[in-house]
Amino acid sequence: MAPGLLRFSSMTRKTLETLLIILSLAGGFVACDDTREAARERASDAERDAREELRKARAELEEARSELERMNERAKAKSNDLTERTKEGVSAAIEDTKRELKGAAETVERKVDETDKALARVIRDEENDKD
Questions:
Q1: pLDDT digits (tens, 9 = 90+) for 8-60
Q2: Other CB atoms within 10 Å distance of the CB of residue 5
Q3: Residue 7 carries which DSSP code?
Q4: Distance CA 83, CA 87 (A)
Q5: Residue 48 vs residues 19, 40, 85, 104, 127: alpha-carbon distances, Å
Q6: At what angle do helices 36-130 and 10-26 cross, to 10 degrees?
Q7: Which DSSP category does 29 fall into?
Q8: Helical spans, DSSP H, in the chain
Q9: I want to staple 22 with a disulfide (CB 3.0 to 4.6 A). Which of 37, 43, 51, 125 is the partner?
Q10: Is 101 exposed, middle or buried, given 0-12, 13-18 or 19+ CB atoms closer than 10 A?
Q11: Radius of gyration of the chain (CA)
Q12: Which residue has the higher pLDDT, 24 or 4?
């Protein structure tokens, strides 16, 4: 097997190897029983087969590229969806925290007012007791 042909399918590899053998034979090293015409025909057939295999390989490559593009688009859409849901979740958590803090602030303010009123009553009562 020729080292540079490892990336092709086995059928393509065989066709290309056959083409290489036939081309070397057609160059003058034709076996005893073969005629130059028969070698040319085999070379032509091998070339035709190789071109067909190449066409199929290109079609498979294009199909693989299309599938990869579809997969990338799906991944991008899922990523965008997850990002949007995360943003919504964070926004909701922020709003909940704001509401809780506002409620806590109102409670603290109410307790401060109650404490102020109680302190004012105590001061008034002490002043009234002095009189």
A1: 566 677 777 777 777 666 555 445 455 777 878 888 999 999 999 999 999 99
A2: 15
A3: T
A4: 6
A5: 10, 12, 55, 83, 117
A6: 150
A7: -
A8: 10-26, 36-130
A9: 43
A10: exposed
A11: 43
A12: 24
Condensed to tens digits (0 to 9), the pLDDT of residues 103-114 reads 999 999 999 999
- Which residues have CB under 8 Å from 20's CB, separation 6+? 2
List CB contacts of 77: < 8 A, sequence separation 6 or more: none
The tokens for 112 are 């401060």
Residue with tokens 């290309």: 16
Rounded-to-10 torsion of CA 43, 46, 52, 54: -90
Side-chain half-sphere exposure of 10, counting CA atoms within 13 A:
0
Which one has a higher pLDDT value, 36 or 66?
66
Cα separation, 124 vs 118, whole angstroms: 10
Cβ 26 vs Cβ 39: under 8 Å: yes
Using the CB atoms, write b or e for 8-22: b if 16+ within 10 Å. Answer: beeebbbbbebbeeb
